[in-house]
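Session log. Operator J.P. requested a structure for one protein chain; no other inputs attached. Running the standard single-chain path with token output.
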Amino acid sequence: MKMAILTPSRGRPEGFRAMVAAVRDTATFPDEIAIYLATDEDDVEYAAPPGVICLRGPRQRLAGWANQLATVALEDGAEILGFLGDDHRPRTAGWDLQVVGAFTQMSSGLVYCADGLQNERLPTAPFWSADVIRALGFFYPPKQVHLYADDYWLRLACDLGRRYYLGGVLIEHCHPSAGKAVYDDTYRENDTWYEHDRRAFEAFVREEHPACLARVQEALCASL
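Structure written below.
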């Protein structure tokens, strides 16, 4: 199954390169994983590793870039769309085979791994089947800017009854809250969206999630 990794990044070219190296060093079939990078044109230039598909343009927040990258990846024929931040590091050798194997068993839905921080509680590095994202019409909840997306992903997957957790696979989230990264300007700015995104998440679940869920369920039933 053709896999795409979506990574919007800001202010962390070294972190992004380290993430790409970790993806490729631990994957069984690294050449079958397409990595998509999005950066803001007012940010530092990124010297992306060879083979990375790069988008650069006027500043967008995480949601906007993630959705734009997902659109490009779907057009390129991706069957699995994963989201990794520039602070995620796959650690388990063959993690890609295990993710693909989970989709082989479940067909459609959400697959996620242990991250050393939230683990089963939240999918901080989700992998979605392309049919779900097409039916939704978005990858990242569009009214949320940076935070609470993983809360929505978990809610959607649970309501669909299509959630597969790979507890034996580690895609480490090297986050300051775990003492694994410096609390830099990017983290500081992201945290200013906490209240906005919490309210946006709650409103989205209340007002728009039922229609989104029904749309995905209809699409999955039609594909049987």
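Operator note: The longest strand covers residues 163-173.
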